[in-house]
Structure formats: structure tokens, C-alpha cells
Amino acid sequence: MGLKTAGPGSISSGPVQAAAQGGEVAVAKAEKTAFDVKLEKFDAGAKIKIIKEVRSFTELGLKEAKDLVEKAPCVVKNGVKKEEGEGIVEKLKQLGATVALE
């Protein structure tokens, strides 16, 4: 009755485990739904316009928005959807700010 035994190198779960781990990473990245808009720096000449824009998408008063903008780099909006965040980033970039969506 000739049963053959498998040698030590004939059974490998390496590629299967690697594929499973890669799938988990892709799922983790896809699940991110909340983003932060970070004001990195801005053109001093556009400061007033940037403060007005920050006020338009936050519920901050003039003084609070001014203080927030002046302490750049800082997060100006937390937990936004990607589409909303991209819109904010685009508006601030048009005004002369350097902004990141994190």
C-alpha cells in the first residue's frame, strides 16, 4: 500500500497567509471614513480670506477662527467625509493656503 508522505517543503501556507494579511490591510484602509483638514501654512496676504473661509465651514466666531488660523499648522476641521474634506482643501488652496487631508 504505497502511501507517500509529504516532505517538509511540500506543504506551505506562506502565500496564503501573505494574501490574507494583504486583504486585511486593504480592508482597514477602505474603512477610513472620517478625515481631518489640516492647515499647514498660508500666505500672509490671504490671511483675512482664509479666516473668512474657515468661519464658513466651522461654527467659530471671528476671534476663534483668527486664533485657529494663526496657530498653523493645525487641524481646522475634524471628522469630515472625504468629499467634503476635498472641497474644503480645494477652497483653501485657491486662497493661498497649504492644506492636507489626513
TrEMBL record:
GO terms for cellular component: ribonucleoprotein complex; ribosome. Residues 35-101 form the Large ribosomal subunit protein bL12 C-terminal domain. GO terms for biological process: translation. GO terms for molecular function: mRNA binding; structural constituent of ribosome. Signal peptide: none annotated. SUPFAM superfamilies: ClpS-like. It holds the Pfam family Ribosomal_L12. Belongs to the bacterial ribosomal protein bL12 family. PANTHER family: 39S RIBOSOMAL PROTEIN L12 (PTHR45987), OS07G0626100 PROTEIN (PTHR45987:SF11). This is Large ribosomal subunit protein bL12 C-terminal domain-containing protein. It comes from Saponaria officinalis. The lineage of its organism: Eukaryota, Viridiplantae, Streptophyta, Embryophyta, Tracheophyta.
